[in-house]
Design goal:
It is a single chain. The protein is built from 10 helices and 2 strands, in the order ααββαααααααα. It is mainly α. Strands 1-2 form a two-stranded antiparallel ribbon. The longest helix has 29 residues, at about 1-30. The chain starts with a helix and ends in a 9-residue tail after the last helix.
Amino acid sequence: MLQAMKPFELLRKNSRIIGAMMMREIVTRYGREGLGFFWLAAEPLLFCLFVIVLWSFMRANNEHGIGLGPFVMTGYMSMLIIRHVLSSCMAAVQANVGLLYHRQVSIIHIYASRIVLEFLGNSIAFLIVYIILLMLSQVQLPSDVILLIGGWTLLLVQSAGVSLILSGMAMRYDFIDRIVPVLQYGLIPISGAFVMAAWLPQEFRDILLRIPFPHAVEMIRAGVFGEFVKTYYDVNYAVLWAIGLNILGLLLVSRARHYLDVE
């Protein structure tokens, strides 16, 4: 009985540490007034509305059989969670290195708290943007909520894996920090956030779908648009990539503590 309780006690202990670090991060990042968190939803909402208004004057509000509103919303929100998770993880240890003085706090706790916080914050922002655009008749209710949530969660896990790998490498090699901003811009065309696989010729589509991110983005769009819009994704392929990226990332960051000066 005692042996059976150990995993549960370990889970509760780590959850408590991660929860405390999340509360500390919320106060530090958003302040006690909550205005910083408001901007997390306001930024994508303003972007979506601006693009919708701009494109309404330039071309039809319907491209390739899909509405401009849901296309911009799903694309920009997908790009945001990739960017936010990456940026948050790259600065995670440097901003919290003093916490590693406590024996109970590990590098994994720091990254876990930031990744979970980004997931919750960006998910709430996505929901707020979706509801407001729905009220403005720019989007419709999701066709498949489970598929939408699955794609969104998978995109987070993939982003976390890439972020952990780059963060672990950055603790060993200083030049990684300098190339990450360039990589963030490079992710825009290859993430599938602003293009659908069905729009591409077969040869280019095959190349794009070798990258794991577009599969998750296509799942999100399939969940929003439904079966009447052609989407391309392989859940097993995307999940295997997500698992592999996170295993490699965790190995890199877990072995990087001796590269840090813990005061």
